[in-house]
Amino acid sequence: MGCYDCCMKCLGGVPYCSLVATLLCFSGIALFCGCGHQALTETERLIERYFARNLQDYSTLAYLIQYFQYVIYFLASFFFLYCIVLLAEGFYTTSATKQTFGEFRSTLCGRCLSSTFILITYLLVVVWLLVFAFSALPVYFFYNMDTTCHTITVLTEENPASINQLCIDARQYGLLPWNALPGKACGMTLSTVCTTREFRLTYDLYIATFAGAGITLLALIHCCLQLAVRRVDLKEERRQEKDQRKSYELYGRLQKDIGGTMRSPYAPHISDSLPPD
């Protein structure tokens, strides 16, 4: 076997669909976890500096932020291991690998593992839909805040007296309790907040987190569809093997009935070709 044939055989054993899904999942999770962790830290700084004066007012929020950061650590570890397992399963079920190591997925253990992967991936898609929707909430909050600041900038030139009526109340979004003071930012104070580095950085980080959640959801849907297609292909292969086995059994039965040699029914008998006595 030449070098070219060896390279083509190796490339033929690469599960490209599984590889694309794994890369998408890795990039999405890295974007979601990295940016989400830093965005939560910056959010705590913004609340502490501009929306709350007492530590007790945002102590619950600080605890929730710390809890979500631990959840992010778990998600990063879980998806890293799960994507590696899915990629390994994809490598093992390619045609080139099956020719070398045999039909693992045709065994009972292989079918159970394939069904388990489909079920787990489907549940992850459902859960990640909720995560995707939840990650849109901080983007919505900061979008409203940025829009209000833009309105304040416009009204400063036209009607400066009305800008103090424009406020962003963190208590309305559940970030702070209702007895927190000041709990909101209005007028020029809000405009000053929007021009700070912390606000712009946090806003961009939440957008990146939302994009990472979307990429991860796309990767999980791709994995689920790919596993389902493999399952259908497995059933088709099993059906073809069953039909082929029946054909072999019928062939052997006919061979046994005829006497051990299969020949065409139109071929002349040996007795017909012998000369008469």
TrEMBL record:
The chain crosses the membrane at residues 70-92, 113-137, 205-229. Keywords: Membrane, Transmembrane, Transmembrane helix. Residues 258-277 are annotated as: Disordered. SMART domains: PLP. It is found in: Membrane. GO terms for molecular function: structural constituent of myelin sheath. One of its GO terms (biological process) is axon development. The keyword Transcription does not apply. GO terms for cellular component: myelin sheath; plasma membrane. It holds the Pfam family Myelin_PLP. It is a multi-pass membrane protein. Belongs to the myelin proteolipid protein family. This is Proteolipid protein 1a. It comes from Oncorhynchus kisutch (Coho salmon). The gene is PLP1.
